[in-house]
Amino acid sequence: MKEKILNILRSRRLTPPSVFEIKLALRNFSTKEKIVMLVLILTLSVGILGAWVELQKKFAAIVPIEGGSLREGIVGTPYLVNPILASSDADRDMASLIYSGLMKPDGKGGLEKNLAEDYSVSEDGLLYTFTLKENLSWHDDKPINADDIVFTVNAAKNPAIKSPSRANWEGVEAEIIDQRTIRFILKKPYAPFIENGTLGILPKHIWKNATPEQFSLSEFNRQPIGSGPYAVRKTERSSAGIITAYELESFNKYALGEPLIPKIKIFFYNSESDMVSDYEAGNIDSIGSITVSGVQKLRRAGRSLKTLILPRVFGIFFNQNKSEIILDQNVRLALNAAVNKESVVENVLGGFGTALNGPLPPKITGAEESETSFNLEEAKNILEKNGWNYNEETGIREKRVKNKPTAELAISISTANTPELVKTAETVKNMWQELGVKTEVRLYEIGDLNQSVIRPRDYESLLFGQVVGWDPDPFAFWHSSQRNDPGLNIALYANKTVDGILEKARTTNEAEARKDKYLEFEKEIIKDAPAVFLYSPYYLYVAPQNLKGFDTETLTTPAERFANIHKWHLYTAMVWKIFVN
Predict the structure, then answer these.
(1) Cα four-point dihedral sign 308, 309, 311, 316
(2) pLDDT at residue 368 is higher than 90
(3) pLDDT at 367 exceeding the cut of 70
(4) pLDDT tens-digit profile of 268-319?
(5) How far apart are CA 90 and CA 113, in angstroms?
(6) Peptide bond into 64 cis (omega under 30)
(7) Is 365 in contact with 519 (CB distance < 8 Å)?
(8) Entry pTM
(9) Do residues 447 and 466 touch, judged by C-beta distance below 8 A?
(10) What domains are defined for the chain?
(11) Which of 31, 106, 194, 263 has a beta carbon 3.0–4.6 Å from 69's, enabling a disulfide?
């Protein structure tokens, strides 16, 4: 029988065997032959699979592909989705998605070109010239040109419009060279000026007929038209007319390429607890600006917590005009040494932050981070050497001066009535009381704190946060000319050496030389101890685990988490490299 089968196969050696012939052959194989055949087939299959894998590694690549949608929750309500009017996080978040500027944050602490194809700076630092990319479009398909840029800058400068960005453009003239070229003329050099290029640009054809008084009332603040990565597709409102959600769609003519996630829906919440509940119920996929306590409540699986560096400085700023006690530099140094900042970061921020020893956030100057100055025994020694003795009965240090009543070492801390700041104030209060300092915490609602406490400088010490850019320019916070409202020098600090350093730093175009100036500035501040610098908190962002392309590491404002949103993606595919651009 076997011979007969072989003869049949020989007679058709050039023709592939039929299924019948294969079955017939296999039926007549011995058990040993079947095992050999199976081993050969498996070996061949493994070899082919291995070769395919190697070919994939060598000639194929994983690439992002378009698809899916994202639902994000934000606490707050947008009222002014307009880059020159935005004043809340909700406003700024939406403006960053819908509008684009000449420049944009790169997510790494630097800037990159957006609407701008190129720019140049004159040697004297007074002229900044930008060239627009070709064929730029608004969401309504109208072309973008130099008129739009100059219109936006002039609107931001207009005092009647009351733009929060106005101070950045004072003394700056904008002129049109041609329809793709704009020049900004400064009265004096200002090295961080390039950051002004991130201002979102308004479409002149939409806004040109609005008077300054109508700017904040226009419906285009709620139904914005920009040139950013996403355009408004639909708006949802409550029965009272308040916006509860924006449905956005990707803009196929965005200057940096159409985003890979076609649809994004932003939901707005009255409180973080409502937002967290909706997240746990699976109604949203990501959460912006979540607090540590909010993170601790999350139980839903499939999330990724992004911890981003946010250049904010929180500290207790001393008002030496309000308290004779803290006029003494030794008292200020002792108060600083008595605060265990690492413990504050752990207890208040859950470890999501960096302890500070000076007025600049970590990584700003490029210098190695120094250890904080906590040393309770040293703090006690400083006070005792300066006549502040511990009263065992009251637990408070006292100082006796001839012909004067006995002075108690007492201080009050004023701050906003928010959970994080209240906990910080109470933590520091306990540390200072261990030193023998009578400490009172005074809490205010944010509006009242700004109007009744900060503006009139009515506090002995103020627990507060300062927002510092990546090219920080601490002038507004520490130059003596900024001591009175509306200046931001809340420590009422005056030091001629520091004034000179700050004035020189902001006119120095060379980045490394500017960093050296910031280091000089920081050393002077630490020596004078006008504040107890506490921490720089991380920005916490909850994203879906399958979100890829999120490469942001640092941001100046929460809205900058969207800086590279055009690169975010939910899906990938294996593609031969010859087909990858």
Answers:
(1) positive
(2) no
(3) no
(4) 999 999 999 999 999 999 998 899 999 999 999 889 999 998 889 999 999 9
(5) 25
(6) no
(7) yes
(8) 0.83
(9) no
(10) 2-62 (no CATH), 69-302+545-579 (3.40.190.10), 312-538 (3.10.105.10)
(11) 263
